[in-house]
Amino acid sequence: MATESTTPLNLSRANMGLALRVLSFWHEARQQVCEFEMLRIKRDLAALHATREAAGADDWNTIAASCQTILRNYMEASASLWQQGLTAAIKQQTATNDGMGDALAKWQASWAEEWQKSSGMNATAMPLQEWMQGCEQAIRRVLDGRMAFGELTNSAEAPVVARRAPQGEQHVR
Phi and psi of 56, rounded to 5°? Predict the structure, then answer.
């Protein structure tokens, strides 16, 4: 009799939570882009109206002064938009990075918890479970900053795959 693999509700909840978190970050970024596009359109529209009003002048000196003022105002508005855009992009990137880190940590905890429950029932999975615990500990140390990622291959607890012969040494004798 074969056992059916069922996905627990917590796992599905974690997957949906991660997907919704990613979509919310995407939506916020898109909303910010639309807001800046609207500000750009307002800047262009203001310059267009000012140009139309300057075209009604009777004197070339008045037109030249108006065009100079229009160009100066346009450049000031453009510089302001660039500054606001860069500031908003940096804030959005930081918030997204922090939020995704939290969401992925919750997702990983949920998956690891369910995986340990399912693999703990099977006696043949014990060696794999010990190997996975070693990998999880090494990754936690790397993420906590206690060990550099390059040190993982020199660690005594490193997976067998990382223990290769140094370059230049023969593998078969």
Answer: -85, 5
The residue range of the domain holding 143 is 122-164
Q: Is residue 117 one of the residues assigned to a domain?
A: no
Question: Could you tell me which of 2, 15, 10 has the C-alpha nearest to residue 114?
Answer: 10
Taking only the tens place, the pLDDT of each residue in 57-69 is: 888 888 889 999 9
Query: pLDDT per residue over 79-104, tens digit each?
Result: 999 999 999 989 888 888 888 888 88
* Rounded Cα distance, 120 and 103, in Å: 26
Render the burial of 145-170: b for 16+ CB within 10 Å, e for the rest. eebeeeebeeeeeeeeeeeeeeeeee
- 170 assigned to some structural domain: no
- What is the token pair recorded at 136? 């999880």
